[in-house]
Amino acid sequence: MPLALLALAVGAFGIGTTEFVMMGLLPDVATDLHVSIPTAGHLVSAYALGVVIGAPLLAALTARMSRRTVLIGLMALFVAGNALSAFAPGYDSLLAARFLSGLPHGAFFGVGAVVATNMVAPERKARSVSLMFLGLTVANIAGVPVATLMGQHLGWRATFLGVSTIGLAAIVALALLIPHDHTQAPAAGLRRELTALRSLPVWLALGTTVAGFGALFSAYSYITPMLTDAAGYAETSVTLLLALFGVGATIGNLLGGRLADHSLRGTLFGGLLSLAAVLALFPLLMSTQWSAALAVALLGAAAFVTGSPLQLMVMEKASAAPSLASSANQAAFNLANAGGAWIGGVALAAGFGVTSPAPAGAMLAVLGLGVAAVAYAVDRRRTVPAAGRERVVASHVPQRSSSPTGV
After folding, report:
1. Quick check: 356 and 348 in contact, CB under 8 A?
2. CA dist 155 → 41, 148, 161, 239, 391 (Å)
3. Alpha helices (runs of H) in 90-143, residue ranges in sequence order
4. What is the set of domains in the chain, with CATH numbers?
5. β-bridge mates for residue 66, sequence order
6. CA distance 292 to 284
7. Cβ-proximal residues to 387 (8 Å cutoff; 6+ apart), any chain
């Protein structure tokens, strides 16, 4: 695999760290800025809103630019947002800085996925995407715990300065390792970019992302009370257990990339089915500590097996605007974050028990399977007639098919 993928992974590591570290810093930020923890929780929402807005917007506006230049510019915006977070004088300014930090998130992964796939052979595209996402999953193992500890001992502002440093390292890596001759985007206008998103298969792929990852966040958003109230773990053990989620996600991500290069659709169906099964078994697995730890790792693995296949599928269905479509998939991922957490909260509020968000997530995973099945049926209806037309033409002009030039 090209060394340039390392530069993309470094950027993904920084983005993954800043996205998830706020959850662990909420009490410290709330105390320092004299706001309640629920109010401080809006800082998480501000970042997610920045991702949803920035992902398609920045991808569309930079469609005519060199992708190498775009990646470096997006990471510079990421550094600026985190530096402003570190020096924010109050809650409102921190809220704005978190929104700014989220703007480049989706576009970076979207454009980065296109760059990654352009640097490898067609049969290794999914694997290249999974290696870029490796930075995101490793962030859950090392970046988030270390950044949280830094914030607890040195202050939350030091955490955002540290993340800014990671961003600067990513800029250097991108400038040194991303080649110029593989990153020039086609000169497509904004109208053409947006037109490419009108395709039904693209929206079905995005819908699969929302339902599939909504299933993950329905349970993961409430994993702490499950571990403490149902499995009986002490709160001090939760950070280590969440690192197990990162280990599972890393394994699932790498496995999904490898399998998707052999069967994109099969890997997607298998991942969603596995996710539904794990979530359905969650209430049982949370009954003992050892099985609860296993459940956390399995949740990460089953969910992230589908990451690379979904990203690649969206790009293929919108081949005229792969950067925009890939970025839109990141926006869908964050919609899944918000929607899944809401559905899990509804299950809790209804009094179905502390583990009830997991079965609710299982139903979302089944919904994702249904959407993926519809997408498969639509693809078959579109490709079979096209194949039939190709056979008719070939039967009438056999001499052309034998031409060395293929014309």
Report:
1. yes
2. 18, 9, 10, 18, 67
3. 91-118, 125-138
4. 1-183 (1.20.1250.20), 191-385 (1.20.1250.20)
5. 184
6. 9
7. none
Two tokens, residue 138: 């490793």
For residue 178, the 8-state DSSP code is S
Q: Which residues, listed in sequence order, are joined to residue 184 by a DSSP beta bridge?
A: 66
Give phi and psi for 353, each to the nearest 5.
110, 160
CB 185 within 8 A of CB 65: yes
Question: Are 17 and 138 contacting, i.e. CB atoms less than 8 angstroms apart?
Answer: no
* Side-chain half-sphere exposure of 146, counting CA atoms within 13 A: 13
Q: Determine the 3-state secondary structure of 66 from DSSP.
A: strand
Nearest alpha-carbon partner for 74 in 171, 191, 199: 171
Q: What is the pLDDT along the chain (407 residues), one digit of tens a residue?
A: 678 888 999 999 999 888 878 877 877 888 899 988 677 778 877 888 888 888 888 887 887 788 889 999 999 999 999 999 999 999 999 999 999 999 999 889 888 888 888 888 878 888 888 888 888 888 878 888 888 788 878 888 999 999 999 999 999 999 998 887 544 445 455 566 666 667 788 889 889 999 999 999 888 888 888 998 899 888 778 778 888 998 999 999 999 988 988 888 999 999 999 999 999 999 999 999 999 999 999 999 999 999 888 888 887 777 666 777 778 888 888 888 878 888 988 888 888 988 999 999 999 999 999 999 998 998 888 765 544 444 443 433 444 333 333 33
**What is the token pair recorded at 150?**
């830094």
Cα separation, 52 vs 54, in Å, equals: 6
Structure tokens at 36: 């309640």
Q: Identify the three-state secondary structure at position 184.
A: strand
To the nearest 10°, report the CA torsion of 258, 260, 261, 263: 130
| Single-letter code of the amino acid located at 121 | A
Total residue count of the chain as it appears in this document: 407
Can you give the pTM of this predicted structure?
Answer: 0.78
Q: Which two tokens stand for residue 402?
A: 């034998």
The tokens of 153 are what? Answer: 């001992």
